[in-house]
Write a structure and sequence with these properties.
The chain is of the alpha+beta class. Helix content is 40%, strand content 9%. It is built from 17 helices and eight strands. The relative contact order is 0.13. The site of cobalamin (B12) has 40 residues, from helix 2, helix 6, strand 7, helix 8 and helix 10.
Length: 378
């Protein structure tokens, strides 16, 4: 079999495993992603693991010595079924079992394929989805899986913004696929955006200091998923009804009109989660949380984190029927993080004066800070 035929056979069999797009890039030219500038500006917030792994992200040789190529894989998670955002609003990707877990077996299978077709051993490659020290979006753009939008997303002409990415760094040398446009090297961001700036304008918390650059400190996705502590008061109103993650800069993108449902071979939908009313979430017990959110990305947030987010959504909802539940959380929940955000929500819904009396018996500094901020605001 010729080298070209073998590479196409690999592409075909990777697609058969469930990957909706399969592209190749050479590693001889490092991506220009301005990771260092991003870190220096503090845009990574408290994701210190991004700092610790920066060298490896910038140099694949430090991940797989002798690596020559990267195989970039895309998994389409677009679902017509949830065409309109629900209330509370979940990031679309979160309405599935954790994709890290459902894609991993296919990556194991991909490794076996490299063994079968190229005689590769475990030392010849590393496969990751999301959690590895790889600049996945930059390599995906280099491989022509799509282009980098002004929203920083890897946008595919076939799948819009709705692609999970996975990467296999390998010592095997593959013929590179072409980027989506020849001037790719001079215009790394917004290659096919034209004069559109919808995503930059739509961001509810002004998280784009520049096109293609996200300041995680202001990003709702970071705040509701990665931040394990207090969500800054100044951002809470902008979070609106978004209980977990944020798709605003993805949803507004005109390139989504070309998106079609993928085969979903590597995904397990949990669209039922979008139906859960906010009041039910506010009343979750640890047992119910564990049962409902088993295997979903929300399991990592834990019940405390989800309640924190739910309090913010409740505070933004204008729904005063939630006040009794929120007052109970503000006065009696065991976690100060939940009490603190519940205090904010109660004040937002107009129940503050009645709650203020309980401040005298509160001793936790997190919660007292919320009462103090409310007092200062009136
Ligand atoms: C840290 C991280 C986050 C952080 C920081 C996001 C960010 N923009 O960096 C937070 C928590 C905020 C986040 C949010 C989200 N994330 Co995230 N995240 C990551 C992670 C782990 C690393 C990203 C990274 O290295 N950031 C550092 C910056 C510097 O690198 P970058 O964004 O990849 O690089 C871009 C810029 O450098 C720019 N660029 C390149 N050249 C140039 C040149 C110039 C001059 C400029 C200005 C810019 C520029 O383009 C690059 C490619 O987009 C990746 C997985 C991975 N290993 O890559 C997933 C990943 C990027 N996330 C993903 C997703 C789905 C999301 C969310 C949509 C989740 C949600 N719905 O809530 C949001 C989208 C927010 C957004 N608009 O970016 C997907 C994106 C898939 C895709 N098609 O692009 C990834 C690839 C995970 C995966 N395997 O599928 N994420
Ligand atoms: S994910 Fe949401 S908050 Fe983050 S940059 Fe996009 S629109 Fe802004
Ligand atoms: S919304 Fe417009 S500017 Fe933003 S990524 Fe999509 S095409 Fe580009």
């Amino acid at each position: 079999m010729s080298a070209t035929d073998r590479q196409e056979e690999l592409r075909r069999r990777l697609a058969a495993l469930g990957f909706d797009d399969v592209r190749f890039a050479r590693l001889d030219e490092a991506p220009t992603a301005p990771l260092r500038a991003w870190l220096t500006a503090g845009h990574h917030a408290d994701m210190h693991w991004m700092e610790r792994t920066a060298e490896k992200r910038l140099d694949p040789q430090l991940v797989v010595a002798g690596a020559r190529s990267v195989i970039m894989l895309g998994v389409n998670y677009w679902a017509e079924k949830i065409a309109a955002p629900t209330r509370p609003t979940w990031a679309r990707y979160a309405l599935h079992e954790d994709y890290h877990d459902t894609i991993a077996p296919a990556l194991d299978e991909a490794g076996r394929l490299l063994g079968e077709l190229y005689g590769a051993t475990r030392d010849d490659y590393r496969a990751y989805t999301d959690t590895g020290p790889v600049l996945e979006r930059s390599w995906a753009a280099r491989a022509g899986l799509g282009f980098t939008g002004k929203n920083a997303m890897l946008i595919s002409r076939r799948h819009g913004n709705w692609l999970f990415l996975a990467a296999i760094l390998t010592r095997i040398e593959f013929a590179p696929d072409a980027p989506v446009k020849n001037d790719f090297h001079t215009r790394d961001v917004g290659t096919l955006c034209g004069s559109c700036t919808r995503c930059l304008e739509a961001c509810p918390t002004a998280a784009f200091p520049a096109p293609g650059v996200v300041d995680a400190r202001r990003c709702i996705s970071y705040q509701t998923i990665e931040n394990k502590g207090v969500i800054p008061r100044a951002l809470r109103a902008g979070i609106g009804q978004r209980i977990y993650g944020c798709d605003v800069c993805l949803e507004v993108c005109p390139w989504n009109r070309f998106a079609q449902e993928g085969r979903r071979l590597l995904l397990a939908a949990r669209h039922d989660l979008a139906e859960i009313p906010l009041a039910e979430i506010l009343g979750l017990t640890p047992e119910k949380f564990a049962a409902v959110f088993r295997r979903t990305p929300m399991k990592r947030l834990k019940l405390t984190g989800l309640l924190r987010n739910a309090c913010i959504v409740a505070g933004n909802s204008g729904d005063t029927s939630l006040l009794p539940q929120l007052t109970a959380l503000a006065t009696a929940h065991a976690a100060p993080l939940v009490r603190a955000h519940a205090v904010w929500a109660v004040f937002r819904l107009g129940g503050g004066p009645a709650l203020a009396a309980t401040a005298a018996s509160e001793t936790d500094p997190l919660v007292l800070a919320e009462f103090a901020a409310e007092a200062a605001a009136t």
